Structure formats: C-alpha cells, structure tokens
C-alpha cells in the first residue's frame, strides 16, 4: 500500500486542531452533511481537494478521495502517537465479517486506502468496528455515502 505524503499530511491537519474548539472549521467554507463536516483543502493558495471529518468521542474519522478516485479513510485521536509505517488492521462493517485492511500510522492518525469492496460496503453501512494499534473502536458512520459524494463533487479547480 502506498499513501503519498501529501495525503498523510492532509489527514493529520484536522486532528492537530481538535483541542482548539473547532479551529479547523473556523471559516465559512465548511458544508455540513449530516454529522460530517466537508471542507476544501487549500495548498499553496489553491484548492486542491476536499475532505470530510466525523467527530466521535473516542476517535475521529476523516475521509478523502485520492487522485485515483479511491477512498482513503483515516482514524485519529490527538492523544495517539503512531510510530509510523504500515500496520495491519481489521475493519468490520455492521455485522459483517472483518476485512483485513493495511493502514499507515503517522502522528495521531492511521490512514487506509480502502479496497473497492470495502468502500461499497461502507457506503451502505451504519457502523464500523475498526481494530487499530491503539484499540478497537465501534463507530457510527451514518451519512458516509453522502459525505463521500460531497467530497467528490465539491468545487475543485479544472
């Protein structure tokens, strides 16, 4: 699995401001899609992509669509400190069997490029159970499909 440094840096940014009471969402470019906050990412003065964040008490989820139109799902918590490198995780959707998913740990996050079959199931799902190095987390993902669609179609430069 290869996740570029750009995507890794983008995933970490919202988590660095978690303790700052919404500082990551300070401007009015955020669109709420259910509980998911979707916002444009600006790199060197130009919008390059969009991402969505779903805050949860124990772990936040961040979703991005990479340059190959694939879902990159990130779990993060400001108290985590991943040692870096690839780790094996399991991800179960609703009451389904767990799927093996490789993730990359960086700073307070674990990010994973989701296989197409897992992405399809996530779009239909309501909850996940994601086993990561810091622990196993059960999270609601309601609205993920709509948030993913919003991230895909948000205004980007042509």
The percentage of residues in β strands lies in 35-45%
Distance between the termini: 28 Å
The secondary-structure class comes to: alpha+beta
Calculate the mean pLDDT score and round it.
82
Biggest β-sheet strands, sense, barrel: 10 strands, antiparallel
Radius of gyration over C-alpha positions, nearest whole angstrom: 14 Å
- The run of helices and strands is HEEEEEEEEHEEH
CATH architecture heading: Sandwich
- CATH-wise, what's the superfamily? Invasion associated locus B (IalB) protein
Tell me what you see in this structure:
The protein has a ten-stranded antiparallel sheet, sandwiched between helices. The longest helix has 12 residues, at 5-16. The chain has one domain (5-153): Immunoglobulin-like (Sandwich), CATH 2.60.40. The chain has three helices and ten strands; from the N terminus they run αββββββββαββα. The protein has 158 residues and is an alpha+beta fold.
């Amino acid at each position: 699995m290869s996740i570029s440094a750009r995507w890794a840096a983008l995933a970490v940014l919202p988590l660095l401001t978690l303790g700052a009471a919404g500082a990551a969402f300070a401007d009015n470019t955020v669109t709420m899609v259910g509980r998911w906050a979707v916002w444009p990412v600006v790199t060197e003065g130009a919008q390059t992509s969009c991402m969505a964040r779903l805050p949860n008490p124990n772990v936040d989820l961040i979703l991005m669509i990479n340059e190959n139109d694939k879902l990159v799902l990130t779990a993060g918590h400001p108290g985590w400190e991943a040692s870096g490198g690839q780790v094996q995780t399991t991800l179960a959707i609703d009451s389904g069997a767990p799927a093996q998913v490789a993730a990359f740990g960086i700073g307070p996050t674990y990010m994973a490029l989701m296989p197409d079959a897992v992405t399809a199931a996530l779009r239909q799902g309501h909850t996940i159970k994601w086993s990561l190095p810091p622990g196993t987390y059960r999270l609601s993902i309601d609205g993920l499909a709509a948030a993913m669609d919003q991230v895909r179609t948000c205004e980007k430069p042509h």
